[in-house]
Amino acid sequence: MSLLPVSAEPALGSVFAGVDIAATARLNWLRDCPRPRFEDDVWSFVGWADAPVQMKVTEKNVLFDRITHRPWRVVAKELALAWIATQDERVLALPRARRLPRHPRTIYARVYHLTFWLNWLHARRIPTLAAVTQDHCEAFLREYGVVRDKETGAVLRNKAGGSLRTVVSAMQDITDYGELLSADRHRPGFRPWGARSPRVVTGAPSRPQVVIKTEPLGDEVLRPLLTACLHLVDVLGPHIVDLRSQLRAERESWRNVEWSRHLRDGDRLAALVEEHLRTGQPLPRIEDFQVTKRLRLGWDPKDPLLTANFQHLLRPTGHRDIHKSLFAQARPLLEEAVAEVGTEYLWCRDPADAPRADTGELIPWSLPLSNRSSDALIRIAGHACTVATAALTGMRSSELMELTVGCRRTDDADDSGLARHRLVSKVVKGRLWGGEVDEWVVIEEVVRVIALAEQITDAGPGQPLFGAFNGFESNGAMTWLRQWVASPAGRRMGLEPIPGEPVHPRRLRRTLSVEMAARPGGLLATKVHFKHLQVATSEGYADPRELHQTGEESQVACSR
Predict the structure, then answer these.
(1) Rounded CA gap, 247 and 252, in Å?
(2) pTM of the full predicted structure?
(3) What residues pair up with 148 in beta bridges, in sequence order?
(4) Nearest in space to 367 (alpha carbons), one of 509, 490, 525, 224
């Protein structure tokens, strides 16, 4: 039965003209953020107060301006608002309209796919949606359903049926929501693929049988990984915190200096150099990239002053550099100083001792570090905290991102002397938009990890502790950790290189679940700790051969 009136002519003016998107969709909004309106060609959800941390900035901007034909932009906007504002009376009047609102992330994805369909029609000079036929739909799906080489255009593979359901569903919604569309609509009686569902059209089974494909990490990877993370946290962590405090104090003091261009006073320069000679302190050293820059400017590679940091040397005078004439005059003095005390990086010149990870031998915890190397080490320590938390708690990526500064909770020790440690975060998957606050019972090592992370972050109380991240590989946490462990700094601390096998939160979660489920009562403990909605999911995590229905598919639908 057609949902359209007898005439296919669209009504004049949209029923949503001028509406506030956030108010119509009943979204909580930040007070000082702009609110998108229906006429905007870009709907920005940056001000959505309940947006999960894992929601990317790109996903918060729904782009209608990429639709070439302007009337079809209105069609896409009306569909998008109907998808999210399902309780609006104008949407409730449609018999085939969806009753559960779609997540703003899903709105972004559906508009993204719908854009390809509408632009495909426009490129073939189809002026109106009323002229669309089933042949058009079939031809588009054949083209859109393959992955092509970007350079040659050759077909590489077919897209999975599940990935095509979204675009087929969006195409059918033009009919299902047709009575709401004002700028254009399908002709009466036409619905792409008729009454067939997107799953049937794309060949995706309605309830697929799946097996958990994520393999747990082997001990050959997990052991050196956790050793490196916990060594960074427990052994080097306090020193890294002190280093960060010194860096912050140094940079804050630099902001208060009123800088002048060139120093011309030879006596003041001589006094600075003599102070270094008197105390035996090396002259400050520049970064490696600055050495490269000097060489490109024509410095002699054998120049004894090639690595000297004149800006830091002159800091007490408030000058950035030595005047050219004074530099030529003072060169013998500077070269004599470099010959006697040398040059060295500013940080960790007199480091405390720390034990090696393999032998326990006490050695200086770090060699002298430059500013860049110091910042990198602090960042590596933060990555170690993220990976260790994922490995020791099994939290999803979305749950790790929702951890905030101040998330630790510790109950007082009972008569047994044992304390109960918890982390407060949000479960995003399968819960209400924005997630639901929940707690994870954790071991003491996790508490120490979180404590260090809170000391080396710039985030304030209540702000995300780890922030958003795109996995652990591809220049993520594991990339930095592997490189540091394999570097001279990691080797001198006795750390074993971490194999190159991919490590991501899903594998760490699976590894912990297998260990938990193998213990008495472990299956139920796994379900509770991992926040699974169904025991079948926990069984699949515990047994790689276990087939189970996609019980968490409904969770994805709710979170989208």
Answers:
(1) 8
(2) 0.84
(3) 155
(4) 490
